[in-house]
Every structure is written in structure tokens, then in C-alpha cells.
Amino acid sequence: MAGALKGIRVLDLTSVVMGPMATQILGDLGADVITVENARGETNRAMGPGPHPDLSGTSLNLLRSKRNIALDLKHPDGRDVLMRLAATCDVFVTNLRPSSLGRLRLTYDEVRHARPDVVYCQAQGFPADTDRANDPAYDDIIQSATGVADAARRAYGEPRRYRRPPHSRRAPRPRLMCEQPPCGLAGVLLCRMPCGERAVELGGRECGDA
Fold this sequence. Notes:
210 residues, 9 helices, 36% helix, disordered C terminus
């Protein structure tokens, strides 16, 4: 059976977990996902043990249902290849911080020159219009910023990161950052956004607050 997103092509410019998991879900739903890595490979390739030094168990999950290409986006030729790919894609997903997108000339306005009807998803830790927009935002930072760590302090006597208990697959959990982009993108794609802008910004802090 064809997936709900069969025929949709996604250009995946994400790293670590939040973005790659979002695009993994889009791939599982049938989208054709093209992941862009640097020459050293995606960060999650080194996140824990795996069958190969450059392929961790984490990356086996996050890179499934995808095709991959290595590009140096700081080099004009690399950016040129990326923009030619972008012209063939329905969706552009990135979790680069706004400052990096600006330096690489990969903002929404610049990408839609290559693909005017692109659905552009920008996911970073903090909203682009705040003074923390370019701050790093790994999971522990977002848990602190949203009060999850302090909730643990009140419950257990000291602040700690939330982790699902390993013995319980049914334990409750907060809504995760990585669950938000694919849900939002799938809705946008299925509705086809007949008019107006097609840019979706998702902040990790707001996802954590939810």
C-alpha cells in the first residue's frame, strides 16, 4: 500500500535527532526523503554503538527510508547542487539556527526562488524573533527551559532529565520536540496550503511547553 505522502519529495537539511526523526516519519509515510550530510557524516552516526564505526544504532533508525548526499554548503558548488535539488523538492526541512541559514543563504525567501511553492519547515530550539534564536538547544537545555527539570526537583528532590523508565514502555511522557515537525508538515502537505506563505517555524521550547 502506498504511503499517504507518496509522490512528495523532501530535502532534509537536519542533524542530531529532532530533525532526522521528523523526516524519518515523513519517509515512513511514503515521502521521498533526500538527506544532506557534510563530508564527515551526520552527527547521529556516532551516537552510540552500531554495526559499523560510521553507522550507529541510532542512525540506522533515523536514516532509514532516506537517500543521502554529502555536500559542502560553504562552497559555491555545494550550495549550487543543493539549490538544484531544492528546485525538485516539495518540502525543505532544516534545524539549522537562523544565523547559519543566513550565512548559507538558505532562508525561506531564498529557497523559494528555486521552488516557489516549497513548504519550508524551520525547527530550532527557540523562536527566530527572540534574543535566544541562535542559542544551542539540545534536549537537556529545552527540558530546563520548559521547567521539566524543575518539575523533577519538586517530585524527586533534585533536578533531573526526564527519561522514560526502561522497564515500562507504557510510562507517560511529555510531548517530544521531534513529534511536532512531521505532524505539522503532514497537515500542511495534505491541505496543500492553496494560498499564502508556506513557511512553518517550530521552536523546541514551545513544543516542550505543550
